[in-house]
Design brief:
The complex is a heterodimer. Chain A is mainly alpha-helical. Chain A has one domain. Chain A has 9 helices and no strands. The longest helix of chain A is centred in the first third of the chain and has 33 residues. The chains are: A mainly alpha, B mainly alpha. At the A-B interface, helix 5 and helix 6 of A face helix 9, helix 10 and helix 11 of B.
């Protein structure tokens, strides 16, 4: 196991390194999201079928990607916490859940707003939509379980088990558009093929996806730092830090 | 520990100390669970009454019209079955946890996987199996066409064990909490949805005389996945809940 892996296990080291990384990610996420949004909403050409209504893709697709990526991050962090008993991993998993849940809500809401002009209804019981809704329910279940258990370490382990069990849903969401004949269109980006859109349309989308990843990193680090300070409040380094900030 | 529970547990422990064969442990666990369940008959009957009552609500709440009820029937029977297994789920590990026998089971040198599988099978024999046998009655009440009956019974027979397996994960995660009831539903219901989808699809296929082997095969695949993986999660969750 490399040395940085062990260093990550130290809340103090983790607090310091995230403090250094945070400004860079914050600037990157603001720049990328602003550039992507302006390009996508104002300069990208309208779709030949959907006109301007397709532009909600610039919010919908990144949010949907993030909701799934965050779930996988959470499950991975939970597994690391279960296997190596690493406190920081538990805190990462705990910090992921609310961010993922809010992005899942955003993906479902933008999907509904997009569905109204294109499919003629706010909601259809299609495989992609249903599995995304299940993902939101899983997030809510994990948050509920975490807040129901008083002991921090038991809560972290229990939610990690639940997150790993819920992981079966991720491939179902991913491939639902390929397995079933659904109303939802297939994936926008594939590693193996070129996107079906002109570059002027997909480049801003790609910028926004990367921007959302940076945004996730920023919110995760902020939540993580809060969690570290809260849990390590009795450690001497946290006290010194607080004294410095006060004095 | 109450006296009624002491004797079956002692039997289980005797085997545990003398013998390490998983098959024997499995049978012993199953015997113990069934013995305990038969001593508390009301716990056995309650989910079935609930099943019947939920199904009664639909003709009263939606419409007593046979054509409308017939289209709703597959979903109603499945949802009612799903909710009643959920109702019985909280008690799965609860009494064992409260009187300490769960701790003894965890401390024993036996593979927890096998013990857990035995407990789940016993739970299914006490809820899923009677529900499957009672389903035709409710199906008739809801005017499900006779062609759908085989699909309903088969899909419930293959689907309800998966519900017991997945529900046991939720029960194991919440066993240490004083009020686990509502929380279990929140944790487990999202994971029940695939079983519900394929189960009702099988019934609908049977009603319209389409081949239903595909849906049943998918239910079987879910069950196989559940038998292989769920006991691992249940065992891990029990260890966490008891040590916490």
């Amino acid at each position: 196991m490399p040395r940085w892996f062990y260093q990550l296990a130290s809340p103090r080291w983790c607090y310091q390194i995230t403090g250094k990384l945070l400004p860079g990610f914050a600037i990157a996420s603001i720049l990328l999201i602003v550039i992507g949004t302006v390009w996508g909403l104002a300069f990208a050409p309208p779709d030949y079928q959907q006109g301007n209504s397709f532009r909600i893709i610039y919010l919908h697709v990144p949010a949907a990607y993030m909701a799934q990526s965050i779930y996988m991050t959470m499950a991975l962090a939970g597994a690391i916490g279960l296997i190596w008993k690493m406190k920081v991993a538990d805190m990462v998993a705990k910090s992921c859940a609310p961010i993922g849940a809010s992005l899942a809500v955003l993906a479902l809401a933008t999907g509904a707003i997009w569905g109204k002009p294109t499919w003629g209804s706010w909601w259809v019981w299609d495989a992609r939509l249903t599995s995304m809704l299940i993902l939101l329910f899983l997030y809510l279940g994990i948050i509920a379980l975490n807040s129901a258990i008083e002991s921090e370490s038991t809560a972290a382990q229990s939610t990690a088990v639940l997150a790993l069990v819920g992981l079966v849903n991720i491939p179902i969401i991913k491939y639902s558009v390929d397995w079933w004949n659904t109303l939802h269109q297939p994936a926008t980006f594939k590693i193996t093929a070129k996107p079906a859109m002109p570059p002027d349309m997909w480049i801003p989308l790609l910028i926004l996806v990367i921007g959302f990843y940076c945004f996730f990193a920023v919110t995760l680090m902020m939540r993580l730092r809060n969690e570290i300070i809260r849990r390590e409040r009795r450690a001497s380094w946290v006290r010194e830090l607080l004294m410095q900030q006060r004095g | 520990m109450s006296e009624t529970k002491l004797q079956p547990l002692a039997e289980l422990q005797q085997i545990e100390n003398a013998d390490y064969r998983p098959g024997k442990i499995f049978i012993a666990t199953l015997k113990r669970e069934l013995q305990l369940a038969l001593r508390r008959r009301s716990d056995l009957v309650n989910p079935l009454i609930f099943f019947l009552m939920v199904a009664t609500l639909f003709p009263l709440g939606v419409s007593p019209e046979p054509t409308i009820l017939a289209t709703l029937a597959p979903g109603v029977v499945w949802v009612a079955a799903l909710l009643s297994t959920l109702l019985a789920m909280d008690s799965m590990f609860r009494s064992d946890y409260e009187d300490g026998s769960l701790e003894q089971i965890l401390l024993s040198p036996q593979p927890l996987f096998v013990v857990v599988l035995g407990k789940v099978l016993a739970h299914w024999m006490m809820t899923g199996l009677p529900l499957t046998l009672m389903a035709p009655l409710i199906a008739v009440m809801l005017f499900l066409p006779a062609e759908g009956m085989s699909g309903l019974m088969l899909s419930l027979l293959i689907g309800t064990p998966t519900l017991s397996l997945v529900g046991a994960i939720g029960a194991a995660l919440t066993v240490g909490l004083r009020k686990g009831g509502v929380l279990i539903s929140l944790l487990v219901l999202p994971l029940y949805i695939p079983v519900l989808i394929f189960g009702t699809a099988a019934v609908e296929a049977a009603v319209t005389s389409l081949p239903l082997a595909g849906h049943l095969a998918l239910l079987g695949a879910l069950l196989a996945l559940g038998i292989a993986l769920a006991p691992i999660a249940i065992a891990a969750a029990l260890r966490i809940s008891v040590s916490g």
